[in-house]
Amino acid sequence: MKATPPRLLAVAAIAAALGLLAAQVWWRTPAHTPASGSAAPTGIVAARRGDPAPALRLPTLDGGTLTLAQFRGRPLLVNVWASWCEPCVREMPELDRLARAPPAGDLQVLGIALDRPEDVRAFLQRIPIAYPIALETPGPADASVRLGDTQGLLPYSVLIDANGRIVRQKLGPFAPGEAERWAQLP
Questions:
Q1: Distance CA 34, CA 4 (A)
Q2: What top-level class would CATH report for the domain 57-182?
Q3: For the segment 35-76, what is each residue's pLDDT rounded down to a tens digit?
Q4: Confidence class of residue 7 from pLDDT cuts 50, 70 and 90?
Q5: Residue 32 has pLDDT above 50, yes or no
């Protein structure tokens, strides 16, 4: 068996690196990535900072319903997640600590699971949490989109003040310790 000349190996490595670079440039062009703040589907209003929170009415695992309006009067951190979303799962213990012992004493936490009820039920059997969970079917007009997540990525969090106005929106997971600082009203 003949050894591969070092020059040929160097050329192959450079070609592979250029190929990866070209793929990244192609993927990051506007035609292939959603624009920041891109619009929600036609007819759907995606909330923005300063807007009133949308009038969501969502089912719960026990067959009841939750509305955002029932949380009025105290600040509310809404976290949209799914059982298959690893970053969502990693941040849940911190959100659970916030729900059990809010830093300001009056913060509420609500989870909205974009998942199948049976998957949420199984997940909560393994990892119980203290805050209420509402259910939503993922789609172009789901609760996450109406709360302002026009990119459709998880986790997605929203801070709603006591008067029902959106004061913060966050796409992506919280870093350790970030949720507590983020949840304090400006």
A1: 43
A2: alpha beta
A3: 334 455 566 789 999 999 999 999 999 999 999 999 999 999
A4: confident
A5: no
Residue 8: band (very low, low, confident or very high) from pLDDT cuts 50, 70, 90: low
Q: 137 near 116, Cβ under 8 Å?
A: no
**What's at 43, amino acid-wise?**
G
- For residue 20, the cross-strand partners are none
Q: Sketch the domain layout of the chain as residue ranges.
A: 1-33, 57-182
Residue 118 has a CB neighbour count (10 Å cut-off) of: 10
In this prediction the pTM is: 0.76
